[in-house]
Design goal:
- The protein is of the alpha/beta class.
- It is elongated and about 50 Å long.
- It has one domain: Immunoglobulin-like.
- The chain contains 1 helix and 8 strands; from the N terminus they run αββββββββ.
- It has one helix at 2-24; strands at residues 29-32, 40-44, 48-53, 59-62, 69-79, 98-106, 110-117, 133-141.
């Protein structure tokens, strides 16, 4: 019982430490997706951003090297393979089912764009209008 109480106390101390560290930091974590397109999001320097787009056909097209938003690592691709257990609309090869995820960190004050594009919007379907365009603006503050 004494060992269990010591373990519980240690977990609580660790949790309190993480809690106060998070409260002291002004940085945030922002998750972006298709619903974030054409919007402006304000974050503080040091904030982390995760962009997940739901198609294997998306490619990141714009994050200038001099931007205040820097990409961290490469793209994380998670394809959904066609088959009987695949979600509706993902049963045939070439549908582009899956996600592409990019991670960023806000480095300096300013307003910056993250853009992606795709030319295919499904099996042999060319994107029309704005279906193949994605832009989100990030306003980095102190």
């Amino acid at each position: 019982m004494k060992r269990r109480n010591s373990a519980i106390a240690l977990v609580l101390l660790i949790a309190l430490g993480f809690s106060s560290a998070q409260g002291a930091s002004s940085a945030t974590v922002r998750t972006l997706n298709e619903n974030s397109a054409n919007k402006v999001y304000a974050v503080k320097v040091g904030s982390h951003l995760t962009l997940t787009l739901h198609s294997m056909y998306w490619s990141l097209t714009s994050v200038p090297k001099s931007s205040g938003v820097a990409q961290v690592g490469g793209v994380l691709s998670k394809p959904i393979l066609p088959g009987p257990t695949a979600p509706n609309g993902c049963g045939l090869p070439g549908m582009g089912c899956g996600t592409q995820t990019w991670n960023f960190v806000a480095k300096k004050v300013g307003t910056f764009s993250i853009a992606a594009s795709r030319t295919s919007c499904g099996e042999a379907l060319q994107c029309t209008g704005t279906q193949g365009e994605y832009v989100v603006r990030i306003q980095v503050k102190k």
